[in-house]
Specification:
Layout: H1 2-19, H2 34-42, H3 46-61, H4 68-92, H5 99-111, H6 117-126, H7 128-136, H8 140-160, H9 168-184, H10 193-221, H11 224-228, H12 240-255, H13 262-268, H14 271-278, H15 282-292, H16 303-310, H17 312-341, H18 353-359
Helix pairs in contact: 1-3, 1-13, 1-14, 1-17, 3-9, 3-12, 3-18, 4-5, 5-6, 6-9, 8-9, 10-12, 14-17
C-alpha cells in the first residue's frame, strides 16, 4: 500500500503535466497524431489515483480514531506550503503581491470545496468519526445494500445516464465505505491476488480503449465533439472505469505479499506534500509546466523524444518535493506539534507510526 501511494502520486503528476500545462489546447482532434495519443494516455490516470488514495485512508481509518491533532497537523501542512510558495513568488517578483493573495489559501479551503481536491478532502476528513459510527450500526447485509444503493446513484447513473451526481466530499465518503467493507468483511474474491490483478488489467485496458475510441470517433466523423469528451469514463472519480481502476489497484496492492522497505516508506511519507508543492496554485502550475518544462511545445517533437522527456519528470518532481518535506517535518512540524502538545490537551497523544499510515492515504 505504501508503494501504491507512490505510484498513484506519480500518476497524478503525469496527469497534471498534461491537463494543467496548456498542452491539451494544442491537440487536433480531427487529425490526431501519435504524439497526441501518447499524451492522452499519459495524462488520463489522475482521478483513478485519487480513488486509490481515499480507499487506503478508509481501509486504515475505519478501525482507528481520528483525533483533532491529526486534523490540525494536516491543516497546518496545507497552509504552510500555500504561504511559503506564495512568499517565494512574491519575493522573486514572479507574482505581484495582493491582499487577495494573502487570504486566498484560507478562503480557498471553503470556496473550492467540490472543485479542489485538498478542500474537498478536508471536508471529507472531518466527518470520518461520523462515518465510523454509521458503519458500526450496519450489519453485513445492510452494509451491502447501502453500498449497492449509493453506487447505483453515484456511479451507474453518472456513467450511463450522464447524471450530475458527482460531489467530491460525498464521493470520498463512498470510497471510504467501500474500503471499510473490504476491511470488515473480507472474502475469497477481495482477498484474491489473481482476481485483483485480472480486474486491474481489465479496467485499465477498457479505460485506455475508451479514450482511444472517442478520439478516433472524432477523427472519423470530422467532429471534435467526441475527442473533447475522450476522458468521459475516467474524468470524474465516480465514473465506472475510474472506480474500477482505483478499486482493483487498491486490492492488488493489499493482496500482495507484505514486505517492509525503508526507501519506500521514506518516500511514501511525503506523498501529500508532493501534491501540495507541485500543485500549490495557478502560479505554480504556470511556472512549472509552461515556463520551466515548456510542456505545450512538446506536441511537435519526435515521439521517442517525448517519451524519454516525460518519463523522468514525475519521478524527479516526486523526489525533490519529498526531500523538501523531510526538512519541513523535522524543523517545522515537530516543533509545531510539540507546541500543540504543551497546551491544555496534553492527555491527547500524537498518532502512532501505524496510525500515520492512514494520514498518508489522503489522495
Amino acid at each position: 500500500l505504501e508503494l501504491l501511494r507512490i505510484f498513484a502520486m506519480l500518476s497524478i503528476i503525469a496527469h497534471h503535466s498534461v491537463v494543467n500545462s496548456g498542452l491539451t489546447s494544442t491537440y487536433d482532434y480531427l487529425h490526431p497524431t501519435a504524439q497526441q495519443y501518447f499524451f492522452e494516455v499519459w495524462g488520463m490516470w489522475g482521478k483513478t489515483a485519487i480513488n486509490s488514495f481515499i480507499l487506503i485512508s478508509g481501509y486504515f481509518l475505519c478501525k482507528q480514531t481520528l483525533t483533532w491533532k491529526r486534523y490540525v497537523k494536516l491543516l497546518f501542512e496545507i497552509l504552510f506550503y500555500s504561504y511559503i510558495i506564495q512568499l517565494i513568488f512574491w519575493s522573486t517578483g514572479y507574482e505581484a503581491f495582493t491582499l487577495v493573495g494573502v487570504v486566498k489559501p484560507i478562503v480557498s479551503l471553503f470556496q473550492s470545496i467540490n472543485s479542489n481536491f485538498v478542500a474537498s478532502f478536508m471536508v471529507f476528513y472531518a466527518f470520518v468519526p461520523l462515518y465510523n459510527k454509521l458503519i458500526g450500526t450496519l450489519d453485513q447485509k445492510m452494509f451491502q445494500r447501502f453500498l449497492l444503493g449509493i453506487l447505483f446513484v453515484c456511479t451507474f447513473t453518472a456513467t450511463f445516464f450522464h447524471s450530475s451526481t458527482m460531489n467530491e466530499p460525498f464521493w470520498y465518503a463512498v470510497l471510504y465505505f467501500i474500503a471499510a467493507y473490504f476491511r470488515l468483511y473480507p472474502n475469497k474474491y477481495t482477498d484474491s491476488r489473481k482476481v485483483a490483478i485480472a480486474g486491474l488489467i481489465l479496467f485499465a485496458v477498457l479505460s485506455i480503449a475508451s479514450v482511444v475510441v472517442l478520439v478516433e470517433l472524432g477523427a472519423k466523423f470530422g467532429n471534435s465533439y467526441w475527442g473533447l469528451r475522450r476522458y468521459y469514463f475516467v474524468s470524474d472519480s465516480n465514473k465506472l472505469l475510474a472506480l474500477g481502476v482505483g478499486v482493483f489497484s487498491f486490492l492488488t496492492a493489499k493482496n500482495m505479499k507484505s514486505f517492509t522497505n525503508k526507501i519506500i516508506n521514506f518516500f511514501s511519507a511525503g506523498t501529500f506534500a508532493v501534491l501540495l508543492i507541485h500543485a500549490a496554485s495557478d502560479t505554480m502550475r504556470h511556472w512549472l509546466w509552461k515556463d520551466l518544462l515548456v510542456m505545450p511545445s512538446l506536441i511537435h517533437k519526435d515521439l521517442l523524444y517525448i517519451i524519454a522527456y516525460n518519463i523522468p519528470i514525475p519521478i524527479v518532481i516526486y523526489i525533490l518535493c519529498s526531500l523538501i518535506d523531510v526538512l519541513r517535518r523535522r524543523y517545522v512540524e515537530k516543533p509545531f506539534m510539540r507546541w500543540i502538545d504543551s497546551g491544555c490537551y496534553t492527555h491527547l497523544t500524537l498518532p502512532t507510526k501505524r496510525e500515520e499510515g492512514a494520514e498518508r492515504g489522503w489522495g
